[in-house]
Amino acid sequence: MNEKLKIGLFGYGVVGQGLYDVLQSTPAFDATIDKIVVKEKKQRNLPDGMFFYSPDDILEDPDINVVVELIDNSEDAYRIVKKALKKGKSVVSANKKMLAEHLEEMVQLQKENNVSLLYEASACGSIPIIRSLEEYYDNDLLLSVTGILNGSSNYILSNVFDHNQSYEEALKEAQNLGFAESDPSFDVEGYDSLYKLIIITLHSFGAIVKPENVLTYGISNINEFDINYAREKRFKIKLVGQVERLHDQNISLFVLPRFVGKDKYIYSVEEEFNGVVVKGKAYDKQFMFGKGAGGHPTSSAVLSDITALAHNYKYEYKKLNYFKKFSYFKDGAVEIYLRYSDSAILKHFAFESISEEYKGPEYSYKIGFIKLSDLIKINRLLREMDIFIALTGKKLNY
User: Fold this and answer.
1) Are 368 and 353 in contact (CB under 8 A)?
2) Cα maximum dimension of the chain
3) What share of the chain is helix, strand, coil (3-state, %, to 5)?
4) In contact, 65 and 6? CB cutoff 8 Å
5) CATH code of residue 261
6) In a domain, 171, yes or no
7) Mean pLDDT, to the nearest integer, of 128-139?
8) Which pLDDT belongs to residue 297?
9) How far apart are CA 70 and CA 276, in angstroms?
10) Domain tally for the chain?
């Protein structure tokens, strides 16, 4: 954009306030927040005239050429972003759930209306993973992207393994510090990581995958037996999202807890930080690290996108538009640790092979290979069982 950026801001929480403050003190480019739409009237640190209560106060304003969407509700965000793009306004969004559920449509809307939708803040907080995948890893040498994508669950697991807290104690502390919500399921059940992984997959391999088709299992069922098993093996448990290139233009992706040894980069990613490992044919492994939770890391990513708009930046979706298409392959097998108390649940798990097993008075476990497709079929049921699942870290068996 060669013209001044006149921003309409949706949402004035921690990130929105941080963004406003930063823009007031950043002389690098010409941008102002002209209007802010919020849900309700209350005392705020800006004049009342800045605030509006209907989305159309921004969307129908011809002077506003950039919409910044920073609200929690994904359905409201979808309506706002869709209308803004159709109105010819460029958009910056941080709403990972909305984007992951509507990626194909969002990509098309940008093209049809010749505008830009940027969303670096939706993926890994302060880590510029999307821009890096778009601009630096923009060839067919990429093999995998693996990472700790959720700061809240990582904070909990860090306290469990580094400070000997129980899962319940660590969760409560995370909630008290604002790293986890009063209802933490979005983070600890893996959904936050899932939506980020869907977005990363598009920019890694040009594939758009529906979130409901991806194996997603979190950490809420972890107990002392699982923690002690990991410690005995000198592992930590991390919640990991991964997309990996397989044979014949296929990819595999999932979100699962994983046993991680000291030889892995993500072993040392602690507290609310994220860590992403990008692996390629020529450059082997490269590691990106940064804060993944909190208002300032997110607002820094939003500001980066606004700055990019000032320089007419758009995602080119090179992997989607210029390379051979990748397909989502579900039939590869992963080696998992399955802890259970009632052997009746084993009827749901079609292990192809067993490498280790233990039967105890209270808990038992099996370690073996099982197809991702078989786990995806019982994805919802997994959360209802008295079990815990974690990847051992062994390679996919193709």
Assistant:
1) yes
2) 71
3) 40, 25, 35
4) yes
5) 3.30.360.10
6) yes
7) 92
8) 77
9) 24
10) 2
Amino acid occupying residue 113: N
Catalytic residue numbers read 196
Tell me if 41 sits within 8 A of 99, measured CB to CB. no
- Answer with the one of 58, 84, 118 that is the final residue of a domain: 118
Could you say which of 91, 118, 145 is where a domain stops?
118
Please answer whether residues 394 and 243 qualify as being in contact, where contact means their C-beta atoms are separated by less than 8 angstroms.
Answer: no
Q: 138-176 burial string, b = 16+ CB within 10 Å, else e?
A: beeebbbbbbbbbbbbbbbbbbbbeeebebeebbebbbe
Q: Report yes or no: 185 and 220 within 8 Å, Cβ to Cβ.
A: yes
SS3 state of residue 214: coil
Q: Does the residue 97 lie in any domain?
A: yes
The answer to whether the CB of 211 falls within 8 A of the CB of 99 is: no
Same domain, yes or no: 204 and 289: yes
Which residue range(s) make up the domain with 52? 5-118
Dump pLDDT digits (tens) for 78-127: 999 999 999 999 999 999 999 999 999 999 999 999 999 999 999 988 89
Q: Considering the domain boundaries, does residue 305 fall inside one?
A: no
Q: Is residue 54 part of a domain?
A: yes
Looking at the fold, whether 198 and 338 belong to one and the same domain comes out as yes
Radius of gyration of the chain (CA): 22
Q: Within this chain, do residues 69 and 135 fall inside the same structural domain, yes or no? A: no
Mean per-residue pLDDT of the chain? 93
pLDDT value at 49 more than 90? yes
Answer yes or no: do 62 and 169 share one domain.
no
Q: In what order do the strands lie in the sheet with 31-37?
A: 51-52, 31-37, 5-10, 66-69, 90-93, 117-118
pLDDT of amino acid 293: 64
Residue with the two structure tokens 């209306």: 113
